[in-house]
Amino acid sequence: MQCATHPKVETELACGKCGKPICPRCLVYTPVGTRCRGCANVRRLPQYHISAAYLLRGAGAALVSGAVLGGLWGVLLPYQLGLFFGLGVGLGVGYSVGEAVSLATNRKVGLPLQAIAVGGVIVALVLREVIEAAQLPRYGISDVLTNDSLGYIVTIIAAVVAIGRLR
After folding, report:
1. How far apart are CA 5 and CA 64, in angstroms?
2. What residues pair up with 30 in beta bridges, in sequence order?
3. CB neighbours of residue 29 within 10 Å
4. How many Å apart are CA 38 and CA 113, to the nearest integer?
5. 144 near 77, Cβ under 8 Å?
6. What secondary structure does DSSP assign to the chain, as a single string?
7. Residue 48, C-beta contacts closer than 8 angstroms, at least 6 positions apart
8. pTM of the entire structure?
9. Per residue in 33-87, pLDDT tens?
10. pLDDT for res 1
């Protein structure tokens, strides 16, 4: 018997559903036995299927949550934080943005949503920097942006947590 897809390959295997001869390269293991690719009906998992509407919903959630968290971060904690307190802020911002994106997209996961969540974390940092520059009138925005290494560390921690939330 010859494989239906590879006619030069001899085989003794057949699809358990349609009976078409298949070689070891063509077979797909399923819970009910071996099948050809057509009968196995292999699909992606639904949580990885992200439509454009879900991407827009995720982007909106990242933008809103990043703006709210950045505003809170800038108003309530306007100046340099200690390292451990900054770690807590980074964990909170990252988890909150990641969770907002996850809820808005019906618990979908994947690389595009991870990038959107990182964008939301960056929105939080930028808004926090703008608020901090407004509260320190003798410094310009460029002074605040260049002298905030702890804020960048907190943002990196938040981005890693947001990515992990959508993995």
Report:
1. 52
2. 33
3. 9
4. 31
5. no
6. -B-SS-TTSB---B-TTT--B--TTT-EEETTEEE-HHHHT----GGG---HHHHHHHHHHHHHHHHHHHHHHHHHS-SPPPHHHHHHHHHHHHHHHHHHHHHHTTT--SHHHHHHHHHHHHHHHHHHHHHHHHH-TTS-HHHHHHT-HHHHHHHHHHHHHHHHHT-
7. 108, 109, 110
8. 0.73
9. 889 888 888 777 778 889 999 999 999 999 999 999 999 988 887 666 677 888 8
10. 86
Query: Which positions ≥6 away from 53 have C-beta within 8 Å?
Result: none
Reported residue count of the chain is 167
Do residues 90 and 30 make contact, with C-beta atoms less than 8 angstroms apart? no
Which position has the token pair 């407004």? Answer: 134
Q: Which amino acid is at 31?
A: P
**Across 156-165, average pLDDT:** 95
Find tokens 């926090």 and name the residue: 128
Q: How many whole angstroms separate alpha carbon 81 and alpha carbon 12?
A: 69
The string of pLDDT tens digits covering residues 77-120 is 766 667 788 888 999 999 999 999 999 999 999 999 999 999 99
Tell me the angle at which helices 111-135 and 149-165 cross, rounded to the nearest 10 degrees.
Answer: 150
Tokens standing for 64?
A: 């809103």
Q: Provide the CA 58 distance to its chain's centre, in angstroms.
A: 10
